Amino acid sequence: MWLIVKFFEALLGRFSRKDSHALTDEVLIERYLSTQDEFLFSILYHRYSTKIYAKCITMLKNMEVAQDCTHDIFIKVLTNIAKFNQQSKFSSWLFSITYNHCIDFIRKSKKSFLSDIPLEKIVESDEISDAFLMETKIGRLKTVLSEMDEGEKTLLLMKYQDELSIKEIGDILGKEDSATKMRIKRAKQRFKQIYDEHYKNEKD
Amino acid sequence: MAINNFKELQRQELADMGSTPSSIEKNISHNMGLFRCIGDIAELYLPHVGRLFIQLIGGNENKTQKGDYLNQDPIN
Question: In terms of Cα–Cα distance, which of B11, B9, B3, B8 is closest to A134?
């Protein structure tokens, strides 16, 4: 009897797969939670796996470790998907898990991440606009980011590439909003400093 | 719309990188199968384990069922 029920569940699941690719992340999650259909989770996997894998490579600098971490991140998503409360976007939630996992990995391998330099050391200067960073030419952006401290670079990627909110970044780092803002400000200053070292005398 | 070259950089990097290794998806799928199997086994056998546990600690499960009521004398 049990097998027959399972068989019909699987059969119904297959009929409802039609057009699943066009569904939003949130609807896919709802359907996955009610049907437990692997296919729906695989759509989410294909939507985000490349981004997550790329992020892991960028942060961990090792292809094999990045593969293991990508696997672990998706297993974490799978086991915690019922806890996703849809208050933020699924992508933000997924990126938060990714950053947390990678930062934990870096800390476990006894490397420092965003080492706690006292905030007083920040040099007071003019606010650097978001537009300055976002409009930096791609080649230059690559160069400047490659020369930044890993933690500060990650902060900028969280803010400008993944568009995480201050609260979400703070949650990942375990810092208050004000401390997070200060760290972002410091990362922007560092970006500007490296940029000026390379390109101040060059024309756009 | 405002220019955001961070996003453009990401697009380029993803294009250069190609797709993720298929082994990751295979392993995830394998794990999902394992979770499902464990879940199904638990769903099937957990009630029996519960009953066994009750019997082991000397409890007596109430076996009164609908059918029993039907067979009872309505007066007594």
Answer: B3
Distance CA B28, CA B46 (A): 26
Of the pLDDT bands very low, low, confident and very high (cuts 50, 70, 90), residue A9 is: low
Q: Do B32 and A38 touch (CB under 8 A)?
A: yes
B30 and chain A in contact, CB less than 8 A: no
- Decide: B6 and A134 in contact? Cβ < 8 Å: yes
The CA distance from A28 to A77, in Å, is 14
- Chain A residue nearest residue B8, CA to CA: A138
Q: Using CB atoms, which residue from B3, B6, B24 is nearest to A70?
A: B24
Two tokens at A152? 């500060």
Please, what sign has the CA dihedral across residues B40, B43, B45, B49? positive
**Contact A133/A188 with Cβ under 8 angstroms?**
yes
Transcribe A74-103 into DSSP letters. HHHHHHHGGG--SSS-HHHHHHHHHHHHHH
The complex's ipTM works out to 0.74
Find the CB nearest B24 among A6, A67, A135: A67
Shortest CA distance from A162: residue in chain B: B7
Q: For A80-129, what is each residue's pLDDT tens digit?
A: 998 888 788 899 999 999 999 999 998 888 666 665 545 545 555 668 88
Report CA-CA distances (Å) from B71 to B62, B66, B68.
17, 9, 5
Terminal-residue alpha carbon distance, chain A: 72
Task: Kindly give the residue spans of alpha helices, DSSP state H, lying in chain A.
Answer: 2-15, 25-35, 38-60, 63-80, 90-108, 130-134, 138-147, 150-156, 166-173, 177-199
pTM, to two decimals: 0.74
